[in-house]
Amino acid sequence: MFSQPQGWFGLREPSRAFSAIVRKDGSTVWAEDASGKTIASGEAGVDDAEVIQSAINNDVVILRGDFSLDKTIEITNSGSTVFLQGSVESSANPIFYIHGSFEGWNYVGKVRMQGLGRWVHIIGNYNNDAIFIEAATQIHIENFRVHDCKRGIVINGLWGSASEIKEINLASMKPGANEALLHILEPPADTSTDIIFEDISFSVRNDADSSSWAVRIDDADARFIHFKDIDAEAVYNGMYIQGYNIHITRAKLRCDKGGIGLVLKGHSHIVKNLYESKGILLDGASRCTIAHCRNIHAEKNGDYCVDIKDSTYNTLIDINIAPYGVKAIAGFKLEGETYWNILRDCQCVQLRGKYAIHFAPNARLNKIIHPHIRRLNYKDDYPASECYIVYNEYHNYNYANRIFNAHLWDNAAHVSSFINDESGCYIKANEHEFLYENSGTATFSGDGTTTQFSIAHGLVKAPSKVLVTPMTVDAASDFYVTTDDTYIYINYKSAPPSGTDNLKFSWFAEV
User: Fold this and answer.
1) Opening angle at CA 350, ends 348 and 353, nearest 5
2) Left if phi > 0, otherwise alpha if psi is -120 to 50, otherwise beta: which for 172?
3) Could you report how far apart the first and last alpha carbons of the chain are, in Å?
4) Residues 152-180: pLDDT tens digits?
5) Which of 65-74, 185-194, 424-433 shows the lowest mean pLDDT across its residues?
6) Which of 262, 185, 182, 264 is nearest to 221 (CA)?
7) How far is CA 301 from CA 232, 284, 420, 498, in A?
């Protein structure tokens, strides 16, 4: 019989708020219950897994020490709580397996695993998963540093409410092709719902597969899952999201090893406060909201920063892309069967690319409201003749894409014009550069012989609609109006009389 462990300052533990405890003492590993009765014992480093398994399905179990495992630890009893003080190093796959059974809906529930203390490690051999959850409900995982595994947490059917996985550091991992450090699989029955993932960081080894992800949801029916405070810097790809009603709040998806930051499929997702994401792709997504995202970079191929592809009824608000001279062909790209999307108050600043906005063929009926575009192609990476604020390849005006109230600065010297072809694109009230409508007043002095007076309209090309109204008696003679790409011409049939500032007009012009 082993003695009861000592607490702080050599005093005995004041109470035993556990059902079983597993610990090590030199060459021995043993488990005992709350009364001090030995449940199992063995040789430390050899029999650790068997001893832990003998105790693990009690109500509250403490694993105290540094354990070496060669077999999977299975948690199958509902209501089990496992506290780890120390570390677990294992060659088993998975290291911990929390599971019920899909047959007869025999789910395991209300299981808690928590690390106690600052450095609580789960260590693999690069070929195993750390924690595999299957046919379960109401699971709580907290405060672990998982490293040297293939995948960190794998979920194959976790439903119900009140599941939380938080304060997890997944480091030096080695996922395979299309695997993820946090991987939600498509289960054979039911689906994964109502899970909160919070304060989770990710990093992979350089020899991890380049198609791997920090987070991947393969369950197309997954729903009501919330990711908060996600940090995916040293990874290849960030988050691959399917299902519906998935929320992401505060995520840094920088993906330093190359790839793409965020892929959204499914519908009704809400994404807020992304920072330094390596590209955003909406691929077959609908009714999603993405808002208040900063420093969105180009994806790995440099084709775009934000791509909306075969997606409908999405709203993007306050998306700030291309900071500090990011290279990408397009800032915002809309392609495929993409329609009824709204981009509002989005910014494209110092993009070293060809187009701030690219409407590819079939992208139609989309609205760009109040975009802020500054210094496109400012380092002249491309010939100005190839660059446009808007590059439009959709030409059916009945289903036109629309741009309202664009704010533009310091672009004109580095691009060809505002748009390559405005057919199929309705543009209203641009400000600063590349005006599509303009108005003002003009004053001239007649000399009794001049019959033509010109007003610089400042529009991107010759206006199709012009209204010139005389404001003085001398100006109100018989005249007609012509235009070109630079001027409105007031042509009198006979010269108006001489005078100082005696010819005054108000004018309006629209392309």
Assistant:
1) 85
2) left
3) 93
4) 999 999 997 789 999 999 999 999 999 99
5) 424-433
6) 185
7) 19, 20, 24, 65
Show the tokens assigned to 188.
């054979």
pLDDT tens digits for 470-498?
999 999 999 999 999 899 999 999 999 99
Beta-carbon neighbour count of residue 398 at 10 Å?
7
Residues 237, 217: Cα–Cα separation, whole Å: 13
Ramachandran sector of residue 243 (left: φ over 0; alpha: ψ -120 to 50; beta: rest) = left
**What pLDDT was estimated at residue 323?**
67
Q: Are 115 and 84 in contact (CB under 8 A)?
A: yes
Place of tokens 């488990």: 31
Give the distance, in angstroms, between the CA of residue 56 and the centroid of all CA atoms in the same chain.
Answer: 39
pLDDT tens-digit map of 386-416: 999 999 999 998 999 999 988 888 888 899 8
* CA-based nearest residue to 487, from 414, 420, 446, 438: 438
Evaluate whether 353 touches 321 at the Cβ level (below 8 Å).
no
CA 484 to chain centre: 46
Q: Which residue in the block uniquely carries the two structure tokens 């082993």?
A: 2
Token pair 């550069």 is found at: 433
Nearest Cα residue to 195 out of 109, 116, 137 = 137
Pairing of strands 315-321, 425-428: unpaired
pTM of the model: 0.86
Q: How confident is the model at residue 423 (pLDDT cuts 50, 70, 90)?
A: confident
C-alpha angle 231-234-239 in degrees, rounded to nearest 5: 55
Query: Percentage of residues in the chain with pLDDT exceeding 90?
Result: 82
Calpha distance 455→440 (Å, rounded)? 10
- Residue 44 CB-density burial (10 A; 0-12 exposed, 13-18 middle, 19+ buried): buried
pLDDT of residue 16: 53
Q: Please give the Cα distance from 93 to 150 (Å, whole number).
A: 10
Q: Which residues pair with 483 in a beta bridge?
A: 488
Q: Running DSSP on this structure, what letter comes out for residue 378?
A: T
Burial class (CB in 10 A: 0-12, 13-18, 19+), 380: exposed
CA separation for the pair 261, 318 (Å, rounded) = 18
Alpha-carbon span 234 to 208, nearest angstrom: 11
What is the enclosing helix (H) or strand (E) of 52? Answer: helix 48-55
Q: Tens of pLDDT along 299-346? A: 988 899 999 999 999 999 999 996 667 889 999 999 999 999 999 999
- Residue 175: Cβ within 10 Å count: 29
Q: What are phi and psi of 273, to 5 degrees?
A: 65, 50
Read off the amino acid at residue 220.
A
Cβ neighbour number for residue 32 with a 10 Å cutoff:
22
